[in-house]
Amino acid sequence: MTIEGGISVPLGSAPGPAAQVDVPAVDGLADELFASLPRADQRRWARVYLRGLLLAQGKKSMRRLAEAAVGSASAWHSLQQFVNASTWAWDAPRSALAAWVERRASVRAWTVPQIVLPKRGDRLVGVHQRFDPRTGRTVNCQAITALLLSCPGANFPVDWHVHLPPEWVADERSRREARIPATAASEPGWRLALDLLRRSVRRAGAPGVPVVADLSDADDPGAAVAELAALGLGFVAELAPRAQRTMAEPPPRPGRSRTGAALGPLRGPRRWHTQVATVMGHDGGFRHVRIRWAPARPPAVRDGAYLLFSVADEGVAGSGLWLTNLTERRWEELLELVVLQASARATVDCLNERFRYLGFSGRSYPGWHHHMTLVSAAYAYSRLGRPALTAGPTAYRTA
Q: Are strands 211-214 and 109-112 parallel, antiparallel or unpaired?
């Protein structure tokens, strides 16, 4: 397949109406995002890989990427070398991608979900057995944490972590074969989430938008929230249900809570307030939902006003236990943020199932990060590039 000379070719990786890929525009995006790569051949293969992701149909094997991008399956070895063995840093391209998205879309939140991605085999970096609360089953998987820029109707992944179980970190052979750096440790998902947020704050400063973070695996939710608050972020954080036993009502202060009531330690439903809000679900219909809430104070946090709340409605995606410091927001606004967690996971599911971007079988730690960086760029182009392409999942909306 010839792709030079400005020829537009069909996007075959997504079902639905035919869409077009503007190859010069894709190459321009690659040149902008990967300008930090030190060698000209690396920048050239970044263009080829990005083309291949957008042009190849079905499973994104190296051979199919090479065939779709340059018309020759024999180029697969060079692509494999570029992704798995080449020593280029991914931080700068991801920062450039975030800036590119921010210039083209109205970012409403930074969303940080934790995702269980089923995998076959046991040699892929980070693969292990884990219980998946979404399916209720123990699966062979990679556990990944992502930072997505949530915009009206879309979420754009711009940074990633893969969880390394203790057995991967402790085993020298596994570390050597997967090229896991000495600085990489086995960290729980909530720490990986906070690390992604710290990196983004260092890159762009504190955002003028809220953060929606999954901290539900934190053994000490108070410490996790304290670290989040220390970053100076407005947030809505998902916590494990057991976290309510560690939260206490702060001393009364005028204007601190919505009722001024002193609730004492949160140890039973009778100490919660009830609020009714009107929301629009993903089906477009309006309905009333019941919210249980109480003023709360994480034990490790000294200052600030916080609300602990849950949504007693199974039809609202993202229902669970949440803590927020956005105490002046309307409940409808807070629920809009809550459902972003489910919407972000739906975006990752789309990358995996619809676009088939996450079937990468490379075994190296750098290779995984390289591939996810290029996947993020491909998805951003598919939603924001020229011309507009077939849309992925639409974010849940609330009134």
A: parallel
